[in-house]
Amino acid sequence: MASAGAEQRKVIIRTAIILGAITAFEFVVAFTWRGVTESVGLQIETGRAMKDALFIILTLFKASYIVGVFMHLKDEVRRLMWTILVPFIFIVWLIIALIWEGGNWGKQTPKSTSIEHIEHLPAQQMPINVHRYGA
After folding, report:
1. Rounded to an integer, what distance in angstroms lies between the CA atom of residue 18 and that of residue 24?
2. Which residues have C-beta within 8 Å of that of residue 82, sequence separation ≥ 6?
3. Which residue, 107, 102, 133, 105, is CA-closest to 119?
4. What is the pLDDT of residues 49-96, one digit of tens each?
5. Which ranges of the chain does DSSP label H, i.e. alpha helix?
C-alpha cells in the first residue's frame, strides 16, 4: 500500500518536472525570440508567427500530457484515448478558427459601400452585388 503512494508521488513529481521544464523553455523563447529572429535575418512577422506556432504546439503537448497522466489515459486502450483526444483537437481547432475569423470582423465590407453612399452613385459605379429597389 505504501509503495502505491510512493509511485503516485513519483508520477506527480516527474510530471511537474516535465511541465516545469517546458514552461521554462517557453519563457526563454518568449524573452529571447526577437533577438534570435533578428540575428538570423527573419522578418518580425515571420518570427512572430513561428513563435506563436511553437507556443501552440508546446501548449497542446502539455495539455495532452496532463490529460494522459492525471486522467490515466496513457494506460487505457488506444481507442478510448483517441475517442477523447480527437474531439479535443477539433475543439482547439474551432477556437483557433473563431479567433482567426474574429480578427477580420471589421474588414468584410469597406465603409464606402454604405447605403447612403451607394444610393447617390451613378449606375456605372454601383457595386455588382448591390441591387436598388424599384429600379
Report:
1. 10
2. none
3. 133
4. 889 999 989 998 898 888 888 877 776 777 877 887 789 889 989 998
5. 2-40, 44-70, 78-102, 115-119
- CA–CA separation, 65 vs 97, rounded Å? 23
Contact criterion met (CB below 8 Å) for 7 and 32:
no
Rg (C-alpha) for the chain, rounded Å, is 26
Task: Tell me which DSSP letter residue 126 carries.
Answer: S
Cα separation values, 24 from 28, 30, 66, Å? 6, 10, 17
| Cβ proximity of 62 and 22 under 8 Å | yes
Q: Cα(94)–Cα(100) distance, rounded to whole angstroms?
A: 10
> Phi then psi for 131, rounded to 5 degrees?
-115, 135
Task: Collapse the DSSP code of 74 into the 3-class scheme (helix H, G, I; strand E, B; otherwise coil) and give the result.
Answer: coil
Owner of C-alpha cell 477523447: 84
Cell of 47: 518570427
Q: Are 56 and 29 in contact (CB under 8 A)?
A: no
Q: Kindly report whether the global pTM for this prediction surpasses the value 0.70.
A: no
Query: Are 118 and 127 spatial neighbours (Cβ–Cβ below 8 Å)?
Result: yes
